[in-house]
Design brief:
- The chain is 30% helix and 19% strand.
- The chain is built from 9 helices and 12 strands.
- The strands form 4 sheets. A 6-stranded mixed β-sheet has the order 3-4-7-8-12-9.
- A hairpin with a 6-residue loop joins strand 5 and strand 6.
- Helix 2 packs parallel to helix 3 and helix 3 runs antiparallel to helix 5.
- The radius of gyration is 21 Å and the shape is globular.
């Protein structure tokens, strides 16, 4: 039914089912009056949630002038649609973060493969997490803005966290979790791996502090394990991550553990002392705020490490955003 109605309304449809015959999936509909689809890719996470994502490389159907002295051009952009796994418990927070990390890695790889100039990136879909969650903070640290919040001038404050609702979830809770994220090419942002490492350290702190109910000193002792000296070794660090349920292909891989260790071992002496532990795991930039409904974790994004913006790139401006149905 929807295929005929959308087709009659001049939409091009792209469908992608979840893996392992889950029975549902994604639909992206592109209006031919406004966009031409240049390329289409499918991203299969192949994780236990069987989640997927779609990437569409589009250009505007209507050309426009970049400036008075140039000829007309057609703006290109990348659109990604996805549906993240639901945060049934705290152990899925790292899985959800990993899904978003894979999406951003895939976008970077696609841009490099096709040698694309900087262009706007739009992420949309059911993110199954609110503005208090780690996925929101992770995307903010990458320069993305929530279109609906931008249009209505909502901040990231607790007061504005519940000013809009997009659906009722399977638990009967009303929540705002369906986002349209926008990243313009002139937006400064952190390197992707830096944002990922900070977010993972924040989750480690949450698991130690909130789930295991450990103080700062006891958390350091857990990570230090049986080390005879007053520092954390790589072996004891890996052992602690295993105890916390972090080590899994869907969560943190062995290569990513090495990256985390390199970040934690700031002076490169092969050990993490108490000051390094405080800086990476117990530092203010990784502090956890109030845990959101449905157990998702909140991680602050810290100070920005900016990249060079592209002065010649053009982006989008959010003028209005409306939720349908409105009641």
């Amino acid at each position: 039914m929807y295929e005929k109605r959308l087709g009659d309304a001049n939409y091009t449809l792209f469908k992608l089912a979840r893996t392992n015959n889950r029975g549902d999936g994604l639909l992206t509909a592109v209006h031919r009056k406004y966009f031409h689809v240049l390329n289409h890719r499918e991203l299969l996470f192949n994780d236990f949630g069987d989640r997927v994502a779609q990437l569409l490389h589009v250009e505007s159907a209507m050309p426009y002038l970049q400036n008075r002295s140039s000829s007309c051009v057609q703006q290109q952009s990348l659109i990604v649609n996805t549906h993240l796994v639901f945060p049934h418990d705290h152990s899925l927070s790292i899985v959800r973060l990993k899904q978003v990390y894979k999406i951003l890695q895939y976008i970077q790889a696609y841009q490099e493969e096709h040698k694309l100039s900087p262009m706007p990136i739009i992420l949309c879909g059911d993110w199954n997490g609110s503005k208090r969650g780690q996925v929101y903070k992770f995307l903010c640290s990458q320069g993305f803005v929530s279109s609906y919040d931008t249009a209505h001038q909502y901040s990231d404050s607790e007061e504005d966290a519940h000013k809009w609702v997009s659906h009722r979830n399977h638990r009967g809770n009303i929540c705002g979790v369906d986002f349209i994220w926008l990243l313009n090419p002139d937006k400064c942002r952190k390197p992707l791996k830096t944002s990922w490492n900070e977010a993972v350290f924040g989750i480690i702190k949450y698991l130690l502090l909130q789930v295991a109910s450990l103080s700062e000193e006891n958390a350091f002792a857990l990570l230090r394990a049986d080390s005879p000296d007053d520092h954390i070794t790589y072996s004891s660090f890996c052992q602690a991550l295993c105890q916390l349920g972090m080590v899994h292909p869907d969560r943190v891989s062995s290569e990513e553990i090495k990256d985390l260790w390199s970040e934690a071992d700031h002076d490169g002496d092969g050990f993490v002392d108490y000051k390094e532990f405080q800086r990476c795991i117990w530092s203010p930039k990784c502090d956890n705020q109030e845990e959101e409904d449905d157990t998702e974790i909140d991680i602050t994004d810290g100070s920005l490490v900016t990249l060079e913006p592209n002065d010649e790139a053009f982006g989008f401006t959010v003028k209005e955003a409306v939720l349908f149905p409105q009641k």
